[in-house]
Each structure stands twice: as C-alpha cells, then as structure tokens.
Amino acid sequence: MKNEFQIIADLIEKDKKVLDVGCADGTLMKFLKDNKNINIRGLEISKERVQECIAKGLTVIEGNAEKDLKQFPDKSFDYVILSQTLQAFLNPELVLDELLRVGKKAIVTIPNFGYWKVRFHLLIKGTMPITKTLPDEWYNTPNLHMCTIKDFFHFVKSKDIKIFKSLALNNLNSSIINQSNLGVKNLFADLGIFLIEK
Amino acid sequence: MNTEKNIKTLIVKKQLKLDCGKTIKDFPIAYETYGSLNSKKDNAILVFHALTGDQFVTGINPVTNKEGWWSYAVGPDKAIDTNKYFVICSNVIGGCMGSYGPSHKDTDQKIFGTNFPVITINDMVNAQYNLLDHFGIDKLFSITGGSMGGMQVLQFISNFPDKSKTVIPIATTSSHSAQNIAFNELGRQAITADSNWKDGNYTSNDTNPGKGLAVARMAAHITYLSKKGLQEKFGRKLQEREDLKFGFDADFQIESYLRYQGSVFVDRFDANSYLYITRAMDYFDLAKQFNGNLSEAFKNTNAKFFIISFTSDWLYPTQENKDIVIALNSIGADVGFVEIESDKGHDSFLLDVPDFLSALKNFLDKSYEENKL
C-alpha cells in the first residue's frame, strides 16, 4: 500500500465510520476495514473500480461525488477521505463543503503543483509538467483545478475551516506543515495531506 | 394448470389478512428448493420471481420442460451457488403455478376467476413468509429478485426487518411509475377485450382468452428489451422472404419473434393471473405505506443491501433504483450500488450478463465469508 494511504490510515482511530470518496479499487478501504475495524463505505465513479471493490467484499456506491454526496445526512461519518481527487472536480469548493457537511472531519490530499520538479519542468522545458503524482498529458489529464499546498492552505483558512493536521509528503518522508515552513514545504513536497473540520 | 404432480405445495393453515380486507386460510403455496440447507440453517436464500416467473428458478421446469427463468444466475458454481446456498422460491399468490390463485376453486367448488381477492405485493410476501417456519429458518442469508421480485424483496425486509442478513433488489422500483401502470393496463385491456375472457369465467383451455393474453405478452415483451438491442438483433430483417409481401403477415423478423413469444406464453400462463399480478405491481408504492418517507420502510433493519440496475433498462431505470439507495443512505444503512452496462434492457437480469453475474456472486460469497468469521 502506498505511503499516502498509510499516513491517512494513521490519522484515523479504530472503530470509526468512514466514507472514502473516489475510493478506486478499494485498497485503502480494505486496509481500514481489516486493520482498524472501520465501518467503511466507498463512493466511486468508475464501474470497473466498483466491481473490484465488490470483489473485495467492500460496500461501495457507484456515483459522482459532485452529485451524490448530497444523499448522505449531515455529519453521518466520523471521517470522509478524498485522495488526490479534489483538483478533478468541476467545482472543488462545493465538493469540499459537502465533505465537511457529511463528515465530522475530512482528510483531503492534493498533488502539489508547487513541487520543485513541477516548477522546474515548466520553467526549463516550457511544457506542462509530468511527474509521479501528475502522470497525464495536458490533453488527457482529469485534473481541472490544479493547486499548490500553499493555495490549499490559504483556501481552507479563508473558509474558516480548522486544520487539525497538515502533512507534506515527499517520497517516503512526511513532515508537519505550519505557517512558518509553508514556503519550504510547498517547494519540496509532491503531496499535501490535510485533516480538516468545519 | 395447477394440478401437475411435480409441484411441491405448502398448505398455509394460518389466516392471512389481505390488503383488500378479505382473509384467506388453508391456502396452498407452491415452492421449489435447490441445494441443501446446512445444519446451522444459515445458508438459505429466498428468491422472489417476477411477473411471469414461477418457483422453478433453474434447471428444467418440469411443467413447461423449458429452462428455469434464472438458470444463468442460479445453480452449482453459478452466481447464486447451489453447492453453497439453499435456494427457495415460491410461486406468488395470484399466480398459476400451484399457489393460491384465480384458477383455484372456492369453497363451493367454483373456479374463482375474478372473484379471487385482489392481492398486493405485501400479501405475496406475507404468504411466502410461512416458508421460513416450514423450513425452520430463523434468519435467511439473503433475499433477492429482479423486477417484481425486487419489489417483494423491498416489501419483505420492510415487513420482516430482522429476517435476512443481506438484501439484493435488482432492476426494480419502490413505487410503480405511471408509465409502468400504463403498460400493465394495456396488457389487461388486451385480455379483457378478448371475447373468450367472459368476465374471467373461462374454464377449459380451448376457450381461454389466448389471443388477448398473447397481445399483452407481446406489448410487455417490447418493454423488457432496449431499442438498441432490438435494432442489433432484428433491424429491418425480413422473415423467411426476399421482399415485402404487401400484406399483414409477419414480414419482419421482429414481428415473427413477438408472435412466437406471445404464442408460447399462453401455453404456460393464465390470463386471470396476469390481471391479478399486474394489478399487484401497479398498487405497489412502498413509500406510501410510510406516509411518503421511503427511509421509514427500512429504519428497523440492520441488513446489508446491494442494489443493482442496468444502463439500458427503461422500465425500471437506474434513477428509480438509486432512489432506494438514497433512502437507505439517508438513514445510514449499509448499502452498495452498481449500475451494470448492458444493452439487453430490463431483461438483463435474466440473461448472460457477466458483469452482473460476477457482481452478484462476489457480493454473496464475500458477505457469506464475513458471516462465518
């Protein structure tokens, strides 16, 4: 399992109720269910991925986060997870609001467009960056609203969303992000992980 | 039609109060089983059949000598694996494969016809509930069914919230739509317009309203398919002829196909039963039973739900299935949902649709494994 998922799992206490939005093949869900006795649900748009989740014995709903989160009651989950998907929505702000309505807390991870390799790629090559966390070409990427760790940090602050924990991830190393090291982390992390609450 | 000797029957001694206000007792429920009930009696799956189905789910139906209606899904090593599970299915009351219905006789030994009480989906599942006592099953492992079978699944778990661990409604609805009532009415009008129907008092086979019933079946059959599926299978292909004949014979293959479907149907189905069962479907509105709040229907159950719809099903479209998912989510129930890609229309659940069959199998087998832990 990838390091990002391990860090997310570590943020969640045992026996909680969790919704994984965009749960893909259910790898993280399965881990949480088996290792932390989590009452886990998934929402996934791809029919193929939904089938993979069912084959793992996971409860998953085929659906679109932009339309289908509204069916869940307020604060009906202890945690709602959104892994590297926020930038792919037509309206990320709306989705973020929904995550924080449905979940008591939300864990959101974002691929960092401020990562030095991304900046370097654009600066030197003059073409849209392609990295491990941003693997697609500009014409076929699902990403519509790229942001940096700094952008997201400022965005949630401006919305009066509480940040419990923010982590910068670079390969296998994770470190705490705070107001004073934000510039550095924004340069050296390829992924940001945020535990937030409204 | 109900005197065949291959039919197993349970006579229900208990009184059953029907929604129409009448009470029935000492009535037969015809059933069939597949696989074997284990010693813990925790491997039973109750399957509910659709409008024209019967208790003969799989293998050769001993009455019609044709394959059972869910042969693709039920059997050894199939999605509903009879090596593992004990499958029970019964003919709905109002039906014509041995369960109490309009072709039965009343206490004066007169065939009921339209004097049979109007029954509902609720009545059907209340009648079938007696099978649990009969087999000594405290809790079913699963209940499932497509179309009208799915309606019975929803009604069953609402009536008996702790009687099944898993619940799988397929290609169904919680409330019969105006369009579906309209199609059913078309079928009923075709039957009652047949001069042989005689207000339901036909008796022997040679004077039954076969023509009307065949038309009802033809019209309904179109609704079970998709436009794309029909176009791909038949297009404008002609039936055993080089050119149009400028008459009203079956020039096109689709006409011939529908005529065939109509003609084989009348051999196995009773016209009055068709009236009764379509009426039961039309009356089905689970939310209405709970003052318009569908979630209330499920609030007492801890069962695990898995809902399945099909992309090309326009009779019970995905949205109507999703409405059930939404109602369940709004009360925090354990519910999964998948829409299966298929161009086979509503009939997809009866056919060889691999994504559907694997989803069904995986859900059942994984849930069963989890149960064992």
Description:
Chain A has 198 residues and is α/β, with parallel strands linked by helices. Chain A has one domain (3-112, 146-197): Vaccinia Virus protein VP39 (Rossmann fold). Chain A has 8 helices and 8 strands, in the order H-E-H-E-H-E-H-E-H-E-H-H-E-E-H-E. Chain A has an 8-stranded mixed β-sheet with strand order 3-2-1-4-5-8-6-7, sandwiched between helices. The longest helix of chain A has 11 residues, at 92-102. With 373 residues, chain B is of the alpha/beta class. Chain B has 2 domains: 8-176 and 287-372, 3-Layer(aba) Sandwich (Rossmann fold), CATH 3.40.50.1820; 181-277, Rna Polymerase Sigma Factor, Chain: A (Orthogonal Bundle), CATH 1.10.1740.110. Chain B is 33% helix and 16% strand. In chain B, strands 1-4-8-5-9-10-11-12 form an 8-stranded mixed β-sheet, sandwiched between helices. Classes of the chains: A alpha/beta (198), B alpha/beta (373). At the A-B interface, helix 3 and strand 3 of A face helix 9, strand 12 and helix 10 of B.
* Parts with pLDDT < 50 across at least 5 consecutive residues of chain A: none
Oligomer: heterodimer
CATH topology of chain A: Rossmann fold
Number of domains of chain A: 1
Total of domains of chain B: 2
Reading the helices and strands of chain A in chain order gives HEHEHEHEHEHHEEHE
Elements of chain B, N to C (H/E)? EEEEEEEEHHEHEHHHHHEHEH
Largest sheet of chain A: 8 strands, mixed
Gross morphology of chain A: globular
Percent range for β-strand residues of chain B: 15-25%
Rg over CA atoms of chain B: 20 Å
Main sheet characteristics of chain B? 8 strands, mixed
Mean pLDDT of chain B: 96
| Number of helices in the DSSP assignment of chain A | 8
Q: Tell me the Rg of chain A in angstroms.
A: 16 Å
State the end-to-end CA separation of chain A. Answer: 29 Å
